[in-house]
Each structure stands twice: as structure tokens, then as C-alpha cells.
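Risk mitigation, structural track. In case the binding assays with iron/sulfur cluster fail to produce interpretable data, a predicted complex structure has been prepared as a fallback.
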Amino acid sequence: MADAKKRLDTNVAGNFFVDATCINCDTCRQLAPHSFEEVGELSAVTRQPEDDGRVHQAYQALLACPVGSIGTERSDKIQLQAAMSSFPLLLEGGVFYCGFNSEKSFGANSYFIQHSEGNWLIDSPRYIKHLVDAIDRMGGLRYIFLTHEDDVADAARYAVKFGATRIIHRADADAMPEAEWIVDGVETVTLSPQFELIPVPGHTPGSSALLYGNRFLFTGDHLWWDPKTRSLDAPRRLVWRSRAMLHSIEKLLNYRFEWVLAGHGDRVKLPPEDMQAHLRFLLDQRRSALAS
Ligand code: SF4
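Fallback model:
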């Protein structure tokens, strides 16, 4: 729980606040961009939510915050319960954002796919009863796809609970050596009909994207949407090999997809042609940066 005594001075006056334990993971700014902004090195409430919709978003942010840095002066139990019930949050086509980001993955987003051949978890949220029960009601888990070594969080607990098969690339498998399915090499692997693992080394040697139905690309920390520049972006820091990352961005031009669903950074839906154009723009930028 957030501590009012640690309330940051950067918050505006009012019910919601961020305290000094914030790790600046960006989760609240994605869920409630009207109310939360980055101020200096941390997040803050820069506008109090005024209507029910925005209060709902602020409570979603409070619950998703991986370190409990968001608090209220007066809790609204009905709104809090409604926000809890909204997770996992349907995005489109049986794809959900899980919420309850984990500190163990520095607050990375995780996703759930409800599918007739068995459900998928992409990276791991916190292991909490509400989410475990919700996943149980939705049919459990058949696969847990791990995009890279940083975002495994509570994957082992979810795997044991649901008897799920964990999938990770060998180059990042030290983070989950007991994974049931360890993938080798640089070629795309069809994991099951509609699901392809695309190796995208760069941020880490074993980074992998999951392409679902030629519509949804789960990218871990390889690629995300930057709402400020309204463009796709990729890591500049914490990069294993820049040239490998460049090739991995280029590789994605061979695929059509509408959604980028990132671990860190915003998710986005665009027409496939626009997505390709954004990818080409990013590639050109990074080629120039490497050449200079
Ligand atoms: S979700 Fe929590 S830790 Fe992450 S930026 Fe917001 S307040 Fe900080």
C-alpha cells in the first residue's frame, strides 16, 4: 500500500497520489494517461480523475502498479472492486492484458489469450488469487510464452498451478531452465497453428516475439509504441548487441500484424501497412545511428 507520508510533492492536491517508492515502470501512465505523467524520474498524479471513467482507470493503475506506489486519501470500495473485476482486460479477439504487473519483471505487462485449443499466458503477472481464479474460470493455461529472461516473474507458479508448458528461447533459458519447451536457433518456429515464435535477439540474446493469427505481435522489450512521438521504438540502453537488434527489427518486415503488445512501453493497433511504414522508419533511424 502506498504511504501518504511518502506522497511525492509532484502530485497535484486531491485523492490519488504516487509515493516515493515508484520505480517509474510506466504502467500507470499506460492505463490512466489522463491522470498520471512522468515528472522528473518518477510518475505523479498531474490531474485528479474527475469522472467515473477516469476514476476507474486510476483504480486500474493502482491495482496494476507492481510496487503499490499509488494510493488514495479516501478509498472507494465499489470503484476498487470494479477495477479488480476488469482484469484481465479484454483488448480484442480473445486477447487480454492481465494487469497486476510484477516487480520481479520491473513492472512488465503480461497478456492472456483465450483460445479453443488451449489458453496462453505471455510473460508473467503477479501470482494473485483474483487473477488465478479468473484464468481458471476462463479455461486455465496450456502454454506460457516467455519473451525473454527479464519477464519470467511468477511463471513457474502459474505453470505448476495449470500444468502449462513454458516456452523460452535457449539463449535466455537460464532464467527458466526447467521450461518444458526450449527453442533453439534463429529461424521462426511454428509452436501450434496460428502461433509462431520469431527470434528477435538484440535486447537479450534470447529475446523472442510471439505472432498470433497474423494480427497480434507480443514483443517483450524488443519493440513498443511511444505515445509521445507516435512511433514504434526499440531499446537504446540495455542492449546485448545493437546490430543483432537491427536485424531483428528488419526481420519483422516479413510479417503482417496489426497489434504490437509490449512488455514495457505502450501497446498499439494500426493497419498492417502503417505498421510496416513505422517499422521501416525505425529501421532507417537505427541504421543511421549505427553508421554514425
Ligand atoms: S505503476 Fe507504480 S511504479 Fe509504475 S510508474 Fe506508476 S506509480 Fe510508478
